[in-house]
Specification:
- Chains A, B: InterPro entries: Beta_hexosaminidase_sua/sub (IPR025705), GH (IPR017853), Glyco_hydro_20_cat (IPR015883), Hex-like_dom2 (IPR029018), HEX_eukaryotic_N (IPR029019).
- Chains A, B: Keywords: Glycoprotein, Glycosidase, Hydrolase, Signal.
- Chains A, B: This is Beta-hexosaminidase.
- The first copy, chain A, is α/β, with parallel strands linked by helices.
- Chain A folds into two domains: 145 residues, Chitobiase/beta-hexosaminidase domain 2-like (Chitobiase, domain 2), CATH 3.30.379.10; 259 residues, Glycosidases (TIM Barrel).
- Helices cover 34% and strands 20% of the residues of chain A.
- Chain A is built from 18 helices and 17 strands.
- In chain A, helix 11 links the parallel strand 12 and strand 13.
- The longest helix of chain A is centred in the middle third of the chain and has 18 residues.
- Chain A is elongated and about 85 Å long.
- At the A-B interface, loops of A face loops of B.
Chain lengths: 551, 551
């Protein structure tokens, strides 16, 4: 047992070093031991289970660098019990993440060696992330035992590279931030009407016609690089090729867009959605999506969109009218949409792909495979509920897995601490929500970043730390809702991102009251010195601080 | 005269190179000659008037670098009449900008040499900026004659370095962008309650106590560097030391803050505004502001705030109560505020400083010097008008110069093309506005960036290009209000900022319609290739494009 004076000394020492308000997202269980340790320079990770994979070794290198780069230049190692390493025991050899992968972990912070146990390498990655967040900048760390696992299996963000193009480096940086927030699915809305940057080898004309320029493309090699980069960080990359609407640039040469006609003059005008009546349409999709399946391997899911299908162009086209006449089983244009989806999904099934679709596919009663994931995206209010609440009840009531993005459209911005709006949405708050959750029918949540007003200049600052509010909602227990506690951790997590090279924006400003009431000084919060920013992360928290939601 | 085939060849050539939709802010008069020229590699600026100053030479170097760095690596010089240089004739030796400085210029784009005439070096700087915006990336330029001058003398932005700290490099970059928008006043709200980063030599304890950390300060040397940097770009730097409210950190050791008391128990609590009843208060202000006057020289104006003065603390303080009893001419706490301002402004007058104040000083009837500038900032609506309309009528009706910032608080953000909200505010739209403008009583406009949610991570992307909407309102004629034209120029100006290293955010996304109607291709708009961004500036403009305000 240490004597009291040592304890007091340690308390002062710790207070003067980097604060750690807690891990974000907050772990399921954490029990501190009251001890304080220090990492030794000799610190190394060691795989002690039977499964020492390159993925694990890569994570060891990454996190050792992250942890030790934060050390203050003048920080002499405090005289504490030293931790000389971390033993990591992974008990299974799962290498590909799915919706049923075990992501749980245990982390024992103790001397002389830390201990991590995880069923899969993916759980081990999260243990390392948690550990990295607990180490202060002077390399001291509190003894603790953490037992953790995510509430939801799918914790995603969506990026849109059609409306603006992101270079590969921006996407990698976004994946880094996702991993730091323990998010695990990058829904890559790679093409849309505005541009077609996917550089196909089998259909090269699509990006030649549809990319902003020959430089604004994602080659197959670049995509494979991104997929590999993400996989090493526990992030799946699910591509979206939206059909039959949201198509234009890139598709023109393939003869699959519907020719629209002026209803008064009968003259041809522009082009609309994919033409569901042409076999060529399915031939093109089959060729394209087979390649996509291969390029994004090992990911089995493809998102094939299905949202906002416009019917006017179909209705104006005489060839479609006569096709409908010849196919009386397809009763109308809604039926034509269903006909399209049915053939598309059959095609995907034949290729061995699973699929995610926007909610319209479900709403229209298209026959879908049991492992289909339905993404609920429609905003707005209807009756006494939000539309997403009604929709989630229907989708999960029908036994389908759902991903909820409707209340998490983070491309929308508002002045102030708008992360609170997202953080406060409880995703199981709908009729039958608790049962749906326990049956695994709420696959998870997704923070969407449509890119009308976002490109590489502001992706990082717009997305982070705001998306981490959704990350915590997707990972932590339903009871983790205290805003003051979340704000404190979100603030520190944002400071941490700056030290890791990600240009996350501030979430607020500091209170001036701390000095008056003898609370912690400004210098005791967020000591990270960020070269080039000078951003001080200048928030201050103390008992008299008036939080934005209390004003 | 050129033959027709040459003309056609040139037309095609020009269409394929960087588009130039027009200068931002739009000049007062521009008459194109129909000729197209090319800048030769030997191009140099030359001062031909009697006044060849270091400031002018510095601008020559800067703009030659800016113009030639944009040249495409593979762009062979087109076979056009070559411009070999630019003669710049400055007719007066004014070196310090004030509210009455002549900023006008003439720019003649013609071969073999361009010609610039300006009354002052400041007008010449704007001629060079205009010229740099007209040169395409292949170094071709249309012949034109531009006669230009600003509508308003004060075209400002306000930055706040108290709520978050900006490093000097961020501030310089902000000044660069201001100069590109022909803005000319940086209102530097350098200190406030949250932190006191101004590092005084005469009162060193203020930043020792009040800065976030010893690193988060602006030394006198750093400030002089910024002032010099700004002056070279035609930007005045006006510091604000807000009093008697908005003070806290940094002032504690000086014995000038009012001790507040619990009205029930009589116990001392925290500290409030400056105590107007102490001679020490004026001694401190005199010492501080004399230094500030010197550090920011040659600028004669100091902004001394005066907004949002809280009275509760004064009311709770028995020493102030007895002082009021001894000074019956000061009738109440409003009178006490006026008493403070009267003494402060007399002190400034004695030091030879001019002053800008927030509108409360005027509203409270404080006696002020004729050259005082009143900044109108209060938002909201009253009766059938915006409050700023009522206030502008009052301030200018009383014969005072005004700066309007109320409708230009650009720290507020909203989803979408919110620059339109600012662009659409006509500042002379108040009772007596036209007369006030013609009498010079609308000194100008100011785009404010309070920094609760801004630091170095997002200052550039939040401020630009949005603040350029205010810049055009402040510079161009009242009739320049076409949103489609403004959006096109704003988009290109933003792309230009990227090439100049400023991280300006996108203002929207492109339309897919251009390819269909035979309009310019995406590649013909905004060809700037921006290393590191990949940001394509992917907007597209064509006759069928549906602008956000038309949807």
């Amino acid at each position: 047992m240490k004597d009291l004076r040592t304890h007091l000394f340690l308390a002062v020492l710790v207070l003067a070093s980097t604060p750690v308000s807690g891990v974000l997202p907050r772990p399921q269980q954490q029990t501190d031991s009251g001890d304080v340790f220090s990492l030794g320079e000799e610190f190394q990770f060691l795989a002690v289970g039977v499964h020492s994979t390159p993925m694990l070794q890569n994570a060891f290198d990454r996190y050792r660098a992250i942890i030790f780069q934060r050390r203050k230049p003048d920080g002499a190692a405090p005289a504490l019990s030293t931790i000389t390493g971390c033993d990591v025991n992974v008990t299974s050899d799962v290498q590909v993440k799915t919706l049923t992968t075990d992501e749980s972990y245990e982390l024992h912070v103790r001397a002389p060696r830390l201990f991590v146990r995880a069923a899969t390498v993916f759980g081990a990655l999260y243990a390392l992330e948690t550990f990295s967040q607990l180490v202060r900048s002077d390399l001291s760390i509190d003894g603790t035992v953490i037992t953790d696992k995510p509430r939801f299996a799918y914790r995603g963000t969506m990026i849109d590279t059609s409306r603006h193009f992101y270079p590969v480096t921006s996407i990698k940086m976004h994946i880094d931030a996702m991993a730091y927030a323990k998010m695990n699915v990058l829904h890559w809305h790679i093409v849309d009407e505005i541009s077609f940057p996917y550089e196909s080898v089998v259909l090269p004309q699509m990006s030649l016609d549809g990319a902003f320029s020959p430089k604004h493309v994602y080659s197959i090699a670049a995509i494979r690089e991104i997929v590999e980069y993400a996989m090493l960080r526990g992030v799946r990359v699910i591509p979206e090729f939206d059909t039959p609407g949201h198509v234009s640039r890139g598709w023109g040469s393939l003869g699959v867009l519907t020719q629209c006609y002026d209803v008064k003059t009968g003259a041809p005008t522009n082009f609309g959605a994919l033409n569901p009546t042409l076999n060529q349409t399915y031939a093109v999709l089959s060729t394209l999506l087979a390649e996509v399946r291969d390029v994004f391997a090992p990911e089995a899911y493809i998102h094939v969109g299905g949202d906002e299908v416009p019917k006017e162009c179909w209705q104006s086209n005489p060839q479609i009218a006569s096709w409908l006449h010849e196919h009386p089983s397809v009763k109308d244009f809604a039926g034509l949409e269903t006909y399209f989806e049915q053939r598309l999904l059959a095609l995907l099934k034949a290729q061995g792909s699973s699929y995610i679709v926007w909610q319209e596919i479900f709403d229209n009663g298209v026959e879908i495979l049991p492992d289909t994931v339905i993404e609920v995206w429609k905003g707005g209010h209807g009756g006494d509920q939000w539309l997403w609440q009604t929709e989630m009840a229907k989708v999960t009531g029908a036994g389908f897995k759902s991903v909820l993005s409707a209340p998490y459209y983070l491309n929308y911005i508002a002045y102030g601490a708008d992360w609170i709006n997202y953080y406060s949405i409880e995703p199981a708050n709908f009729t039958g929500g608790a049962a749906a959750e326990s049956n695994g029918l709420i696959a998870g949540l997704e923070a969407c970043f449509w890119s009308e007003y976002i490109d590489a200049t502001n992706l990082a600052s717009r997305a982070w730390p705001r998306a981490a509010a959704v990350a915590e909602r997707a990972w932590s227990a339903e009871t983790v809702t205290n805003l003051t506690d979340a704000e404190r951790r979100l603030h520190e997590w944002r400071c941490m991102l700056l030290t890791r090279g990600i240009n996350a924006e501030p979430i607020g400003t500091c209170s001036v009251n701390a000095q008056r009431v003898g609370g912690p000084t400004l210098q005791q919060w967020c000591q990270y010195q960020v070269p080039g920013y000078g951003g001080y992360c200048a928030e201050e928290w103390d008992p008299v601080y008036s939080a934005p939601w209390d004003r």
